[in-house]
Amino acid sequence: KKDALEHWISGKRRICKPSTYISTSARRMAGQQEVTLYGSWRSRFSRRVEIALKLKGISYDFIQEDIQNKSADLLKYNPIHKKIPVLVHNGKPIPESQIILEYIDETWPGYPLLPQDPYDRAMARFWAKFIDDKCLASIVKASYGPVDEQEKAFEEVQKNLSYLEKEIQGKKFFGGECVGFVDIVANIVGYYLGAIEEALGQEMLTKEKHPCLYEWVHEYTNCNIIKENHPPRDRLVDYFKTQIQAARASN
Asked: Tens digits of per-residue pLDDT, 67-94?
């Protein structure tokens, strides 16, 4: 039996078929289209795109990128930022995970990622931007920043998680009763943060301080498509431990 990590990174390419949880009619909407995702097994950003494609029932070809030795195709398709993820749809590249999610939602109907109401759509975009600009930035600083700045960074993480705590109150998911755009973007909190906490040996999100957000994490990580499309926890923890040790050595 193959090691769990090999399932995610075997070779440079893997073919990903629609989830068994998506209806046949949703799969037919994908048509005979060429969809390729350039990403990495450990990237929270490319995982967002994979979850969205699975929710939509879209088959796609996944290209595992070596972040330290980027392929000519990646540099061709994203010459400005030179980063993953990049979705290539019928030869046309789309970079940046949140932009890709919106493109997927507009291109393939069926399972909605964003709300239909204009105000709700605007607020979903607001919270998604908040997660990347504020939550993610503070988590990275608390994890990898200089030791003498970590206490302040942890306080910033707590403040940002408190904002999300208020937003998720009374809801099963940020998107309502089903996983939506904000939930997908919030995978840094829903899945990756737990691995970072284990690697650090320090909690950031607790049931006592963030009961609603804590419950959302439980709902999120137990959603079938989410469970199927995140990397192995133990490998992720090992990766973060290595990165944290390297950051502390350089600081």
From this structure: 899 999 999 999 999 999 999 999 999 9
